[in-house]
Write a structure and sequence with these properties.
Chain A is of the alpha/beta class. Chain A is built from 13 helices and 14 strands. The interface between A and B is medium-sized, with 35 and 35 residues. Chains A, B: It is found in: Endoplasmic reticulum; Golgi apparatus; Lysosome; Secreted.
């Protein structure tokens, strides 16, 4: 049927000269009926509040979802039940191990020249301070490299503090340079003899929220408590240090390393009619940090990928499968993703397109692929159908996918896509207590859902099976 | 000299027909040299960062200033020293009693359907929960009146929760209707048998900060713990209640009533040359809540009133005195102001103009008086000199002054002024941990300082001694 239609077009019922490249691509890859279906699904998704209902339910009824907690188990049960209620053809769990960690208490004070509370949070994986806390003098560094360059032993008994300011940008490109200090700051501070580590939050916010996130120790280097302070508190510390007198602070962090835990990737699939083993992978992660309710990170992603597939299934059964994977324990180190791509290591060629939504809930403004040349006509056709949603096409063909696709990229050259979201405000909320449902704009969430639905349906139905380069 | 100049004008060196009313007022009340001095002081104040330096110093080196705390004592010492360093002619302290109260711990959790932290704060004056906290089912009311209308005994063992949403407005007029629930909510809840009280914060913020503030018990009514939750948490509670299942929460508030304490109004005066006993009163309050560093409430007011007087003194010695009064213990019930106006009860007629800056640090957009008819020419003249700062003149003549002028208004009909500030964002920060220095815009603070300097200098030098109506 599709071939017949394509032949019909090529035999010039439509004058070929009037077809632009993207229209040609569409005509080559999709039947007219298929394109009409794409439009129908797009409009439906763009007018549905299903994704809102899902993110509202997850963040309200479950709330924070730190891997291994009771809430994480509830989230797994929630996701499985929602997939089933939404009528996905297959729903299953796959286990994932991860290093389990808990935050029990965190407080801090500036002690000199006056006592003032510090708004701070333990970085993920941080050890505890002694039960009664610890006190020390703050030594300020502007950058991670400045701390690295400090002489050995120079921080003996001190508390190292990096005051690096993250840049605000639409694509969040300030995150990479800032996050170095989170990942390894405590290790570098310990090397110089520091008894604890503080950093300005990896955040663009001027509100008094501290930003948590993964941090890592190095074997052979003393573990010291690792914390981030809210940006107004970082400013306060910097002003006090600038006055020239010693600034002493008190930190009390109580956490626990619980060893290896188990959580679950929750997977729902709409099974393809023609090539069921081939599939479009729509990713997001089900876990969240414990401070907020994980609405932007990544409840929105969970909701919109589930809803996108459901909107497709409500209208048509795609030729290839659409698999929504809600990864486990992303925040603690992509553990669910590592388990998933390890488990399917020999069958990664079945993935015809992969994209992850894990950058909040602002609008998708651009679409980009990372595919071989033969797949580009499909990409152009998809881009054409995303245009009505205000999504532009970035031709660089260098998409990187979300964080949970890193293990995929490291294993094979998969066909990976970015549905780039506006991220200008994302790091105002990311990994803070302020990541709550009210930060999700229902209208923008609809646009995201529609974009994912268009992308998934077309990747599943394209004449060409897409592949990486 | 002044009279000579006025006569000169009236004898038509300037053609009277071309003078507008406000120019006439200026000419009647001020010499040309005086008006030139006003311009000079205005420009100087508008270009000086003295007020910024003061608010930075107070909020950084002292920080939070809850009455009676070590920080409050530091603030009193800070203010006295600053007045002296700035060269005020007289600097003195006046004691004020107040009911001393401390906050030691506050935490809360939603318990069902899942455990989630609540961002909440004890209202000022709240009693403690039992040491291990208390738990109860939430009963939601939309308004204070709805709670008042609940049948007696209907909240036995329950936790009352008022979810009233404050309106955002330039003049903060949403505060009054919202604050009823803070003042007396716990009393009404206790009357119905509730074991604790929660309210949506009196705040326009969508960030996760709880808003504290004064609350009051009534003799004969059981005291129950009184708290406010951050607005996103109020939304979360409302969504959970709407699901129809019982919502249980846990609250743990540890506070202490320390009985009567003493703090100090700190007063600095620039002494008038001609009528030293008459004075312009520039008010603000030195204390703050303990959660933030009291930058907007009221560090900015302290800084800009001190700076305004200093800018005047740098250029001229006014005919009447300018007295800057940094009131004590405003947040706990205007205690410093009550003490001040009681102390000067018999000499309130010496106040020729009074204004308080206690509404943050956004620009002054309007000027309004509350004076007798004879004083209106002075008011018009001042308004004319405020125009270059973008300040309009509100002719209603119904100014109310800041909160610390309430005891003055209640005692006598004083000449009171409002330098109305834009308050659109004020209740995003007011009484929260997020009231920190970065919320003060240095440029807007300069405009405020200049407006206060113009007002104070002109009120001090006007030919007519202003009075209330």
């Amino acid at each position: 049927m599709k071939h017949a239609f394509r032949t019909l077009i090529q035999s010039s019922i439509l004058p070929l000269v009037t077809l632009c490249a993207s229209q040609l691509a569409q005509a080559q890859e999709f039947t007219k009926a298929e394109l009409e279906m794409v439009e129908k699904v797009r409009e439906h998704a763009h007018n549905s509040n299903l994704s809102w209902q899902l993110v509202e339910s997850l963040t309200t009824e479950v709330g924070p979802r730190l891997p291994g907690t009771e809430n994480d188990k509830m989230a797994v049960a929630w996701a499985k039940q929602k997939f089933q209620q939404l009528g996905f053809d297959k729903v299953w769990l796959e286990p994932s191990k991860f290093p389990e960690w808990r935050r029990y208490h965190e407080s801090g004070f500036i002690l000199t020249p006056s006592k003032q509370p510090l708004h701070l949070t333990a970085l993920g994986n941080s050890i505890s301070t002694p039960k009664k806390g610890l006190t020390g003098e703050v030594v300020l560094f502007e950058t991670f490299d400045e701390l690295k360059a400090a002489p050995a032993g120079s921080l003996e008994g001190k508390i190292a503090f990096i005051n690096y300011r993250m840049n605000r940008d639409i694509d969040g490109n300030g995150y990479g340079p800032a996050v170095k200090a989170r990942n390894k700051g405590a290790v570098e501070a310990a090397k110089k003899g520091a008894i604890a580590y503080m950093m300005r939050s990896v955040s663009t916010s001027h509100h008094r929220f501290a930003h948590t996130g993964g941090s890592h120790y190095t074997k052979g280097i003393t573990k010291i408590p690792a914390t981030a302070v809210a940006n107004p508190d970082a400013d306060q510390l910097a002003r006090l240090v600038a006055l020239g007198n010693p600034v002493r602070v008190e930190l009390n962090i109580q956490t626990e390393d619980l060893g290896e835990g188990t959580s679950y990737n929750v997977i729902g699939e709409i099974t393809g009619t023609k090539y069921p083993e081939q599939y479009v992978l729509l990713g997001s992660h089900l876990d969240s940090w414990d401070l907020g309710t994980g609405a932007l990170d990544d409840g929105a992603g969970v909701a919109l990928t589930m809803a996108a597939a459901k909107h497709i299934a409500d209208h048509t059964q795609p030729e290839r499968s659409i698999r929504v994977v809600l990864f486990a324990a992303e925040e603690l180190g992509l553990w669910g993703a590592k388990a998933y791509f390890k488990h399917y290591e020999k069958r990664l060629g079945n993935i015809v397109a992969a994209a992850e939504s894990d950058f909040g809930a602002d609008v998708v403004y651009a679409f980009e692929s990372n595919v071989n040349a033969a797949s580009l006509p499909v990409v152009r056709a998809i881009a054409e159908q995303l245009k009505p949603l205000g999504v532009k096409y970035i031709r660089k063909n260098e998409a990187r996918g979300g964080p949970d696709l890193i293990p995929l990229r490291q294993t094979t050259s998969a066909p990976i896509f970015d549905l780039h979201q506006v991220g200008t405000d994302y790091f105002d909320y990311h990994h803070t207590a302020d990541d709550t449902l009210d930060k999700v704009d229902p209208e923008k969430l609809k646009q995201n859902t529609a974009a994912y639905a268009v992308f998934a349906l077309m990747a599943a139905n394209a004449e060409t099976k897409m592949a990486g380069k």
